[in-house]
Amino acid sequence: MSYQFQAEDRAIATGIKRIACEELESAIAKLKGETEDDPNEAVHDSRKSLKKLRAVLRLVRAEIGEERYQQENVCFRDAGRELSDIRDAQVLIETFDKLIDYFRAYLVPDAFQEIRQTLVANYEKVSNQIIEQEDKTKEVAAILAEAKNRVAFWEIENNNWSALSGGLKKIYKRGSSAFELINEEPSVANFHEWRKQVKYLWYHLRILTPIWADMMTELTSQMKDLSDYLGDDHDLAILRDYFLTNFDQFGNREDLDVLLSLLNRRRPQLQLYAQNLGARIYAEKPQDFIERIGKYWEIWQAEIQPPVKLEIAVKQTIKNKSKLTA
Q1: Is residue 194 within 8 Å of 56, Cβ to Cβ?
Q2: What pLDDT sits at residue 251?
Q3: pLDDT at 308 over 60
Q4: By CB neighbour count within 10 A (0-12 exposed, 13-18 middle, 19+ buried), where does 202 fall?
Q5: How many CB atoms lie within 10 A of CB 105?
Q6: Among candidate residues 317, 315, 294, 295, the one with its CA nearest the CA of residue 306
């Protein structure tokens, strides 16, 4: 499975539909228990596939039409929400562990273990509920199977850069605007909105990686770093809210206060890393960015197209030789 265009995709429609179908097939197989994945990891991977599918839709939004876009986007969004509870509970533990690892040198061994045990107990409760409701994952798999059948009817007629440039430009522009808003008002909500646009752009650039593998691989690597900074910051904000909302579940209040202070110290660091990297990624104006990537696309298309004139010349030579030897 490859979440990117391939030289064999002679048409944009072919590549986009292949990518979408591969992600759907992967999610369906995992949700139906047809892989060797742990059930919880299968749910997590399926949710990632749904996010990647929504990015694909945004890339070709203008091509497939607003009605089709809304239908599929709502389908994938709602399917992801059906699977969100178990992942949210798992993220709380992962975020806690990352925070402790970062400050490990300043902490005694097994610090805050009572707090972690409470998070684990919450995860196990949610996990058991989801796994016991096997029908839910099968229902989502059935919904995705229907969606896969609809992919063939996505109308993508243009086979040039214009089929992709509109969606890519919109996401880059939204990310740029969200970044500017962060500098004016660095709220949790604004960082979350920027994070969403960064992730969509990261997925779009992954799809376009082959147009210049070396350069695009480096750019997507930077996009992943930016997404990780923003994701870790968002997860810490969610963990903080969970602690404050469920304060009575945690016995050692002093430990919780210390943990919250560490959390509040870590978040500004991540935000600063994100803003510094974001300033580089969003340094170009949207139109300049699109024109640059578009030139890479056109060069790549010229490289992978069969040399028609040479092919005709070779065929003519073979034909002439056949006549001489006849």
Answers
A1: no
A2: 73
A3: no
A4: buried
A5: 6
A6: 315
